[in-house]
Input
Amino acid sequence: MVTEPNAMTDTDKALNYYRAGVEGRRPDFVPAKVRLARAVCGDGPFRSMRADAGDHACESNQWGAVSVRLSNGQVLGVKPAEFEVIEWRVNDAERRLQNMADSAEG
Output
């Protein structure tokens, strides 16, 4: 159940996000903008990919996994310990998935 976003504080949204991760469910809110305190490099074969420190608009999948777009257009996934959320949005993944399914059908 999605709670009205204006009725919740950022702390409430963060609690919902992190609790959902522990409970294995989709969060009602996902990050829309994150702050990287330092540059973040990819792991393993993606080591050459690097996101600069600073504020980044981000994408989140339905489970709340976060990725930022690099200056070269590539996307790098970042771990929760590597960012601070500075803006939240409603997790509309189910609506987006339904729209994609509807588009595929007709």
User: Anything to note?
Assistant: Residues 5-105 form one domain. The longest strand covers residues 29-36. Residues 10-23 form the longest helix (14 residues).
